[in-house]
Write a structure and sequence with these properties.
CATH superfamily of the largest domain: Type I PLP-dependent aspartate aminotransferase-like (Major domain)
Number of domains: 2
Structural class: alpha/beta
Number of strands: 13
CATH class of the largest domain: Alpha Beta
Strand content: 5-15%
Distance between the termini: 56 Å
């Protein structure tokens, strides 16, 4: 009998919390039950036609089907540079400060793989999108979690954050090399203004660490709020990179187009490791992505308005359910406190019960780390009619529980 060989790296990954919710959803659907699904941030709208048309046009050209450049074709890197210039007034070098990635999640993992040594320390907000800390764990590094707080306007509590950051920088050994920030934040939707990055960059230069800033939801902002870029701060490129994706902005989640920009040393490391492990994404997809960034942007307004309308419908229709909901300034999520009488269940068991009894699926907060306990993440991926139906289902469930 073969004595099995252990895979220690995979052992460092826990059981995926969301898997149990997905298993229940699958069984219910196989049994013909209608599940109203808010559990995954998967855009439900179509990719704009002008982007699809460009993909089809590019796909018909024979020259576009060979191996691509691993760091992204120059035309797309130039489109990224122009996007940053238009949106933020930031200048980037398309050759040394930009790397195209196969989605921002994959790009982030490859970046961490390129820049991390075993035993390094990284500081990550908690709760967090799971890959933000598990990318480091998979590469033999350690993660220090900083719990984040926010006010009634969903603005990050700066004082609390920077106090905890300074404590971690002073107490951790070895000294942290990386600080990961993600605003608009997934899952909480907390946001920051430019002054947050001014202080963070100043501390990074003084304490000698690199910043990885994820702004995946930058364009999904509501009202007067505008998502800042860390590169609006003078000298930020000395210490920071920023990751972005076309997934949410242009309904291109399955296309897997993202990018990392900023600090030359980190971007060069990413470009180098990608040159060893991949050939870059399909060239027609990259060509179509240039049209997304350079072409008409009115589609973004439509997508943003759709999420804002859904957000307001959900807040209004969920009144009386006992969920603690604060109106987000950005992102495609709502971070909702579990009704007080069900907090004893914990977020995972609560989500299982709501799914089975009310046929409504949420993401349990504990799946984003222990500081997410007591909350659920609600993705605004169902239409307004379905949102109202979910509220009715939950209210009936609560009534039956009395």
């Amino acid at each position: 009998m073969f004595d099995e060989i252990e895979f220690d790296k995979i052992k460092r990954l826990p059981k995926y919390v969301f898997a149990s919710i997905n298993e229940i959803k699958l069984k219910m659907r196989q049994n013909g039950e209608d599940v109203i699904d808010f559990s995954m941030g998967n855009p439900d709208g179509p990719t704009p036609n002008h982007i699809i048309d460009k993909l089809c046009q590019a796909a018909k050209k024979e020259k576009n089907h060979g191996y691509s450049v691993s760091k992204g074709i120059y035309k797309l890197r130039l489109s990224i540079v122009n996007w940053y210039k238009r949106k933020y007034g930031v200048n980037l070098d398309p050759n040394t400060e930009v790397c195209v990635t196969m989605g921002s999640k994959e790009g982030y993992v490859h970046l961490v793989q390129a820049i991390t040594n075993p035993g390094d320390n990284a500081i990550v907000c908690s709760p967090a999108y799971p890959i933000h800390y598990y990318a480091f764990i998979l590469n033999g590094a350690n993660v220090i979690n900083i719990p984040i707080k926010w006010d009634d306007e969903m603005l990050l509590d700066y004082q609390s954050y920077f106090n905890d950051l300074q404590k971690a920088l002073k107490s951790a050994f070895p000294k942290p090399k990386f600080v990961v920030v993600n605003f608009p934040h997934n899952p909480t939707t907390a946001v920051v203004n430019k002054d947050f990055y001014e202080k963070l960059v100043s501390i990074a230069k003084k304490e000698r660490f690199y910043i990885i800033s994820d702004i995946a939801y930058a364009e999904l902002c509501f009202g007067d709020f505008k998502t800042p870029s860390i590169f609006e701060v003078d000298g930020a490129k000395d210490v920071a990179v920023e990751t972005y994706t076309l997934s949410k902005t242009y309904n291109m989640a399955g296309w897997r187009v993202g990018f990392v920009v900023g600090n030359k040393k980190m971007v060069e490391a990413l470009q180098k490791i990608k040159s060893w492990i991949d050939y870059g994404m399909h060239t027609p997809t990259q060509i179509a992505a240039t049209i997304a960034l350079d072409g008409p942007q009115d589609c973004i307004v439509d997508i943003r308005n759709k999420y804002e309308n859904r957000m307001q419908v959900l807040i209004d229709s969920f009144k009386g359910t006992g969920f603690d909901i604060k109106k987000p300034k950005a992102s495609m999520f709502i971070w909702a406190g579990i009704p007080e009488q069900y907090k004893h269940l914990g977020s995972l068991e609560f989500c299982k019960e709501i799914l089975q009894e009310a046929k409504v699926a949420f993401s349990p907060g504990v799946g984003f780390g222990e500081n997410g306990e007591g909350y659920v993440r609600i993705a605004l991926i169902e239409n307004e009619k379905r949102i109202r139906q979910a509220a009715r289902n939950i209210k009936q469930y609560l009534k039956n529980k009395k």
